[in-house]
Amino acid sequence: MSNENKCPKCNSANTYQDANMWICPDCFHEWDPAESAQAAEEEAKADMALDCNGNALVSGDSITVIKDLKVKGILSGIKAGTKAKNIRIVEGNDGHNVSCKIDGIGAMYLKSEFVKKA
């Protein structure tokens, strides 16, 4: 049986189709394959790191900070216009999804909404 007919909840192959819905008799889950494909696409878009202009960021890009950012332990913080090369996109907590190294400060995590692609 193909993977699309398996239950997304319990992964059971014991499923059947009723009109346009698929039903799993093991866990009583009902789903529409068209809606689940659309939901997976929307989830993938939500996981992407987008800069302030809506451009997708990928690991290896160069970025520029768009506003002054306060940093604990550093008096001056990060000034607007500061550049960072060779970033990494990470799955961070609190929205800090860009890992980079800033000259004079060191390794940091930044939120992608405060940077733009250089």
Account of the 3D structure:
- With 118 residues, the chain is mostly beta strands.
- It folds into two domains: 45 residues, N-terminal domain of TfIIb, CATH 2.20.25.10; 68 residues, Roll (SH3 type barrels), CATH 2.30.30.40.
- 13% of the residues lie in helices and 36% in strands.
- It contains one helix and 13 strands.
- The strands form five sheets. A three-stranded antiparallel sheet has the order 1-2-3.
- The mean pLDDT is 87.
Entry keywords:
hydrolase activity, N-terminal domain of TfIIb, YjdM_C, YjdM_N, 118 residues, SH3 type barrels, hydrolase, three-stranded antiparallel sheet, single chain
Summarize the structure.
With about 120 residues, the protein is mainly beta. About 15% of the residues lie in helices and about 35% in strands.
**Integer-rounded radius of gyration:** 21 Å
* Helicity range: 10-25%
The N- and C-terminal alpha carbons lie at a distance of: 48 Å
CATH superfamily of the largest domain: SH3 Domains
Discrete helix count: 1
Structural class, from secondary structure content? mainly beta
Adjacency order of strands in the biggest sheet: 1-2-3
Query: Which parts are unreliable, with pLDDT below 50 for 5 consecutive residues or more?
Result: none
* Main sheet: strands, sense, barrel: 3 strands, antiparallel
> How many DSSP-defined strands?
13
Report the mean per-residue pLDDT as an integer: 87
CATH class of the largest domain: Mainly Beta
Number of domains: 2
Query: What portion of residues belong to β-strands?
Result: 35-45%
Can you tell me the CATH topology of the largest domain?
SH3 type barrels
CATH architecture label name of the largest domain: Roll
Shape: elongated
Give the SSE string. EEEHEEEEEEEEEE
